[in-house]
Amino acid sequence: MEYNFKEIEQKWQAYWKKNSTYKTEIDNSKPKFYVLDMFPYPSGAGLHVGHPLGYIASDIFSRYKRLQGFNVLHPMGYDAYGLPAEQYAIQTGQHPAVTTKKNIARYREQLDKIGFCYDWSREIRTCEPDYYKWTQWAFIQMFNHYFNTKLQKAQPIVSLIKAFETSGTEGIQASCTEEISFTANEWKAKTEKEQQEILLNYRIAYLADLKVNWCPELGTVLANDEVSEGVSVRGGHPVEQRVMRQWSLRVSAYAQRLLDGLNTVEWTDSLTETQKNWIGRSEGAELRFEVKDQDFNFDVFTTRADTIYGVTFMVLAPESELVKQLTTDKQAPEVQNYLDATKKRTERERIADRRVTGVFSGSYAINPVSGTEIPIWISDYVLSGYGTGAIMAVPAHDSRDYAFAKHFNLPIIPLIEGCDVTEDSFDAKEGIMINSGFLNGLTVKQAIAKAKEYIAEQKLGQVKVNFRLRDAIFSRQRYWGEPFPVYYKDEMPYMLDESRLPLELPEIDKFLPTEQGEPPLGRAKNWEIDGYPLELNTMPVFAGSSAYYLRYMDPKNDKALVSAEANQYWRNVDLYIGGTEHATGHLIYSRFWNKFLFDLGLVCEDEPFKKLINQGMIQGRSNFVYRIKDSNTFVSLNLKKQYETTAIHVDVNIVSNDVLDIEKFKSWHPEYKTAEFILEDGKYVCGWAVEKMSKSMYNVVNPDDIVEKFGADTLRLYEMFLGPLEQSKPWDTNGIDGVHRFLKRLWSLFYKDENLLVNNEAPTAEELKTLHKTIKKITFDIENFSYNTSVSAFMICVNELFALKCSKKAVLEPLSILLAPFAPHIAEELYHILGNESTVCDAVFPVCNEEYLKETAVKYPISFNGKVRFTLELPADMSKDEVEKIALLHEQTIKQLHGKSPKKVIIVPGKIVNIVL
RNA sequence: GCCCGGAUGGUGGAAUGGUAGACACGAAGGACUUAAAAUCCUUUGGCUUCACGGCUGUGCGGGUUCAAGUCCCGCUUCGGGUACCA
So what's the ipTM on this one? Predict the structure, then answer.
């Protein structure tokens, strides 16, 4: 019997489906393990071979954990809302729901072929009302809470209202958009509308006028993580700054907790580092500067309080409210010119063209420590959104201030002994302070601490921590997203009653803004509730992915996002696998979302993802043919030097081992029908390059084709065999024969022609050694996600058993269980051939018995000055002295010594002998 | 600019400081076959030698060590992230 993968794979996929093998229920008798993949956005292009890489890795781990007796939750679903479907709808008029559904069906079909152990009964789609009901619900909770900075925890907004009623803002410790203060009486005197406006200043989900990233091309605002280098991450359209009234989530309130939490999770260093940078905590001081000839002062934030004696000017952000206050009449026209000019510059232009610009405001500040007068400038190199939107400039020790000072000829005072600031600033935080009054003679580190102390003592300001992390803008002027459960009364937002959820996405005639420039929902008929208009914006794509891992625990629950019981059992994700591209988006938002729900007592774990692995990208491997200029003749790779040629991408699917299938090429495209070829050794050899896998490079490989030709097990093994999981590597179908041969060879241990070879003989010591060293290696590799070396280990094992002609059940059975996580179909088949009747998924993972691995002899490499000259087989338990004696007496040693006596002999028992001459 | 990863045969890649190149692909040769496919066996870093063997070799330059792909210092280079965050 031959290895018929097609038959085997179909048979067991049907069996698993029929027997609900992958259905998971809460089982308190077993420990839980939750393995999660970052769910995909179902794009129209379907899956290419790069997509399943992470899914296969998580599938292996899930199956492994199950074999070890864990109750494994391994769900899958779809991040179904998003821009591409809507852009497509705008172009074609097709409803995004229709294309999304179609794409999901296609994804599912592709995923099913690979034999994953997903519990599909738990599937979720973010665009389904049953699901987004809970996204809307969470939003309502965020609206109804504020963040108490003292407790570092979300609290009901009603408790804040109570506090306002009794003592106003006195003693309030709450994260807010803007510091405001009022008394209890003032509060009570306010109208309902005024009170609501004030509460928005504190709510975790709030509406505010904010400077946002507006993308005209997409017709929507974008969050910071959706913009990179001044263009939208999706589509690469220019983005500009605009002030708009938008929903936001007060993610910044959780900055410290988001930072602290990173110490409690097992993520890769690079990922935690990225998050740390994104959160951007900096400790420093807020210093108050008085303005000369005005009864006015303002604060600046600095991490270098030690450089206070080197401040030679101040700079305000052009958008700062201080600009108006500090611009003198004389300077007013010039300042206005500058403001107009900067406003016109988009973020992108500012990044591309980083010239030094600025204008003098006319005012002077007084250095609070030295008392000197310093001019106040305005420049766009200072950001309005960070700190106070104003800085103290220390050109000697900050490169940006230095560039500015040089350009406008402002003084530069060095503060560190021996530093040279004639060409560049000295930014390093090291050295001994000079020119700095009471800080002279201290190291920079000491000076920072002392200056902070001084500032606090003298009440010149306060020690402060600033974060780079911004609140998440949560409104999108788009159709294909979750509607907000919000209606407006007297222009103030109010939440829908929970009983009215979900608020379903209405139908509209066109997926475009209205003629008045309102978002697409402005087109919806009767988009109101009880006579009040509903919100026209929809939620961003990260809304639906922020708590999906919780929903999988209890996907059908219509009373809660997740029941306490399910949450108590499944708790959080033990292993999360996905791409690095979500480092600053999804992985921040979902941690924030989870912490919020944690504060409300709705989930029992503070961090959602305990361990996280980033799978590397699968790159494409493109092939080229070389056309001789102005002809339809193509020349083979190694002959092309003789001609002037153009390289043309050719579909990798009609190339095998870099040799072009000429007939297929001719019919690939009409213009090549009459093509002629200059061959080498009768073959047309193509060139190649590693590039992104994309349609335009003709290097996309579809997993379906691989499954068709080699089977799912081969695909799974080969994806893992390509290289380390976390590394990026090119896909090259050429190597796949190797793993396919391995499976065939494994099969050949069971069958020769029609004869079953399996027998019940007792295994030899050698066979047991092969088996158990494989068990040991595979176990270690799975635990360390080193799947590429496990595939090698399987190959070695089968090669050895093949050489030993071993078809013993006692060896093959554990081997088939061992292989089951990697190649479940063939493993299941083999397991049944061996006489088992239940699924291999419920077998017990074999355990290595070290007894079988014990070596009686060691092959000692004998080296001279570190260079190995020969090997010597000696008993494993031989003493050091005896090894030395034998090694030194060996004829080859004597030859190497040339009559000299060795200076030193190093013996590492069981490892190596090194003789030093 | 800053931060994080890499760099090992023709290719993908192995190597708790202890015989570099496991395992595969490709290539070459052979067996089986009328033939092909499939399968099996052998060789395969480079240079050198009839051979035994020798020399050399993990991006570059230093260093530590009995011993370095691995540790340290300084570069080169290719990816990825981030960007006026004071």
Answer: 0.94
> From the CB of residue A46, how many other CB atoms can be counted at a distance below 10 Å?
16
Would you say the C-beta of A10 is within 7 Å of strand B? no
Two tokens at A670? Answer: 């009409």
Alpha-carbon gap, residue A17 to A15, rounded angstroms: 5
Length of chain A: 917
In angstroms, the CA of A396 and the C1' of B54 are apart by 62
Residue nearest to nucleotide B68 (CA to C1'): A866
SS3 A669: coil
Fold that domain A281-467 belongs to in CATH: Isoleucyl-tRNA Synthetase; domain 2 (3.90.740)
Cβ–Cβ under 8 Å, residues A73 and A35: yes
pLDDT at A350 over 80: no
Specify the nucleotide whose C1' lies closest to residue A270 (CA). B4
Across all strands, nucleotide nearest A871 (CA–C1'): B19
Cβ of residue A910 lies below 7 Å from strand B = no
CB A372 within 8 A of CB A412: no
Nucleotide in closest CA–C1' contact with A386: B85
Domain boundaries, chain A: 31-126+545-614, 139-262+471-541, 281-467, 620-700, 706-849, 855-916
In this structure, whether the domain defined by A31-126+545-614 belongs to CATH 3.40.50.620 is answered with yes
**Nearest Cα to Cα of residue A171 among A189, A155, A149:** A149
Going by pLDDT thresholds of 50, 70 and 90, the confidence category of residue A348 is low
Bases of chain B within 7 A of a CB of the protein: 3-5, 11-16, 18-20, 22-27, 38-41, 54-55, 66-68, 79-86
pLDDT one-digit tens code per residue, A1-26: 789 999 999 999 999 999 999 999 99
Using a 7 Å CB cutoff, list residues 836-895 of A near strand B. Answer: 859, 861, 863, 865-869, 871
Any atom of strand B under 7 A from CB of A281?
A: no
Is residue A611 within 8 A of residue A784, CB to CB? The reply is no
Confidence of residue A640 (pLDDT cuts 50, 70, 90): confident
Question: A706-849: which CATH topology?
Answer: Isoleucyl-tRNA Synthetase; Domain 1 (1.10.730)
- Mean pLDDT check: name the lowest of A86-90, A481-485, A692-696: A692-696
pLDDT at position A644 is 87
Residues A593-613: pLDDT tens digits? 999 999 999 999 999 999 999
**Whole-number Å distance between alpha carbons of A344 and A821:** 58
Q: In this structure, what is the dihedral angle of CA atoms A445, A447, A452, A455, given to the nearest 10 degrees?
A: -170
Residue A805: CB atoms within 10 A of its CB come to 9
| Range 473-532, chain A: CB under 7 Å to any strand B atom | none
Q: Count CA atoms within 13 Å of residue A230 on its CB side.
A: 11
Identify any residues that bridge with A687 across adjacent strands, giving them in sequence order.
Answer: A624
* Closest CA relative to residue A177, chosen from A144, A152, A211, A151: A211
- Read off the pLDDT of each residue in A126-136 and give the average, rounded to a whole number: 96
CATH number of A855-916: 3.10.20.590
Q: How far is CA A623 from the centre of its chain?
A: 30
pLDDT exceeds 80 at position A897: no
Q: Is the CB of A414 under 7 A from strand B?
A: no
CA–C1' gap, A867 and B9, in angstroms? 21
Distance CA A32, CA A29 (A): 9
pLDDT of residue A543: 94
